């Protein structure tokens, strides 16, 4: 129950912060949306031309502009103060009433069960690009998140199991490319704020704030299937055969 209360308290703080942000935009700082869109456009254009010096300059101008816009909002200051007070109160409570962990009958009566740690195909990475191995590797479902960088998942170097193979990627800035072997059925569920989507040569084109859900024709009947679930703030998704 205590863990639920902690979660509800944090959710309440974030909801209040969003409400403060809404009031701030509606009545006091209506130009914030325009400023954020301009910063996002700089970041997107710069990300596209990252290999050139001008592209890197545009990208970091956008990043700095976005950060400054966020830091200058009343909602962000409210969030920082609220979180500080929340964790301060939690610290005081724990000092007065330390939490004791004791084994319960529910756990002691359960038989011992061994666990095996599996090496992930890809890992969470704050900054920088990554891709699956160029040599043969053992498949395991992918569930990663990244702030900035390109991600490439090549399924031609692994053996997919029967049933569903899941690729779950959350990305802030950067492109995602998934290479799928022929005769493997695929479903794609993609959510983005801004970017392009290309699936097997069918290009969706650049758009804003869109959720796309598609699948190949024989997906439901196939024994080997790949489910791709991706979320990107600014970036492109490309799924192609290899």
From TrEMBL:
Residue ranges crossing the lipid bilayer per the database entry: 12-45, 57-89
Keyword Membrane belongs to the record: yes
All residue ranges annotated as the Cell wall-active antibiotics response LiaF-like C-terminal domain in the record: 127-239
Pfam families given in the database record: LiaF-like_C
Highest taxon in the source lineage: Bacteria
This protein's GO CC annotations: membrane
UniProt KW keywords: Membrane, Transmembrane, Transmembrane helix
Keyword Membrane belongs to the record: yes
Protein name: Cell wall-active antibiotics response protein
Originating species: Priestia megaterium (Bacillus megaterium)
């Amino acid at each position: 129950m205590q863990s639920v209360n902690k979660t509800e308290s944090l959710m309440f703080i974030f909801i209040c912060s969003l409400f403060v942000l809404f009031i701030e935009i509606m009545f006091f700082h209506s130009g914030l949306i325009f400023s954020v869109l301009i910063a996002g456009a700089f970041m997107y254009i710069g990300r596209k031309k990252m290999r050139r010096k001008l592209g890197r300059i545009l990208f970091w101008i956008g990043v700095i502009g976005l950060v400054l816009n966020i830091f200058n909002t009343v909602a962000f200051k409210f969030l920082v103060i609220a979180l500080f007070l929340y964790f301060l109160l939690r610290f005081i409570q724990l000092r007065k009433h330390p939490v004791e962990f004791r084994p319960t009958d529910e756990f002691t009566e359960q038989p011992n069960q061994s666990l095996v740690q599996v090496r992930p195909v890809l890992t969470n990475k704050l900054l920088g690009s990554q891709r699956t191995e160029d040599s043969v590797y053992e498949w395991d479902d992918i569930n990663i998140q990244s702030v900035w960088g390109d991600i490439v998942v090549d399924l031609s170097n692994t053996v997919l199991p029967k049933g569903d193979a899941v690729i779950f990627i959350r990305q802030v800035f950067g492109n995602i490319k998934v290479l799928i072997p022929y005769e493997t059925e695929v479903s794609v569920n993609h959510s983005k704020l801004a970017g392009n989507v290309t699936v097997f040569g069918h290009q969706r084109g650049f758009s804003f704030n869109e959720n796309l859900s598609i699948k190949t024709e024989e997906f439901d009947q196939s024994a080997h299937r790949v489910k791709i679930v991706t979320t990107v703030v600014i970036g492109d998704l490309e799924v192609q055969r290899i």
